[in-house]
Amino acid sequence: MGKSMVRYKKLGYVDLNVSDLSRSRHFYENIVGLEYVGQGPEGAILLRCSDDPYNVALRQAAEPGHKRTGWMLESPAQFDVLASQLRAHDTPFEVLSKGECSERGLLNAIRIVEPNTGAVVEFYINNPPDGHYGFNATLAKIVRLGHVVYATPKFNEAVAFYRDVLNFAESDSIEGTFTFMRCWPNPFHHGVGIGRGEKNVYHHTNFMVSEIDDIGSAIHRLNRAGAPIVYGPGRHPASGSAFLYFLDPDGLTCEYSFGMEQFTEAFPRAPRTLPRKPEAADFWGSPQDPRMAKIGAIETYTIAGT
Length: 306
Known about the structure:
- It is a single chain.
- This protein is an alpha/beta fold.
- It has helices spanning 21-32, 78-88, 98-103, 155-164, 212-225, and strands at residues 8-18, 35-39, 45-48, 56-60, 65-73, 94-95, 106-113, 120-126, 142-152, 169-174, 178-182, 192-196, 201-209, 229-235, 242-247, 253-258, 272-274, 297-298.
């Protein structure tokens, strides 16, 4: 990784399309444990699980799934580095207007459509930069929005785009089926996962918790609420995380995880390729419910001028 490569701070937000705003707000606030912030543009429900202005936006839509994901750049200087990379790889982008940035609490932002998954991806700096708003943990000690995962038939191409254009670092792969990548130099094992799928699907949203007990207590809370648990509890061999996957009211897949591996910026270990077998996904052998990651439409968008 050289000085001319894009540098990130973290995964900042994901905007989700839902069929019933009131129902989804109740679920993410009172079952998942996010904190309600208020309403955003066009009536979006804003929630957070960290010291950011928001981490999850819920938007009313006909089809549940992914609207956009936002990655916080390390500094304003990274906009020029990113724009240079995008131009060099013939990737269209647009600079968000001052009005849209102001509405959404951003200082500056660039938007692209990732050409393989079709997902809208934004790169931004908060307004004010690195502002701290305070998250009041309630049901679970969530510490951050952990990662997002997409599935696509263009698996190899999507991995190459995140690696070669956006400068994400590969951490591990499951042979031919999943690749886990971190937004360098952020230390966590992965901020994005790319899976092989028959069509483009938003696979799941991850929330990282600070205690293993948060996963245990969530099992009973989800059962009481009638929310399906579709995978776990288990432990991922690649990242070392303990996990629990469950469905929101629209059938979108969510995950709690605890204990993810962290990498050093200098001299990190080499990425590994794990064999394609069930044990590569879960040390504990938990079965997957077939409903996992089946719902998650990726909203289409056209970059201005293309």
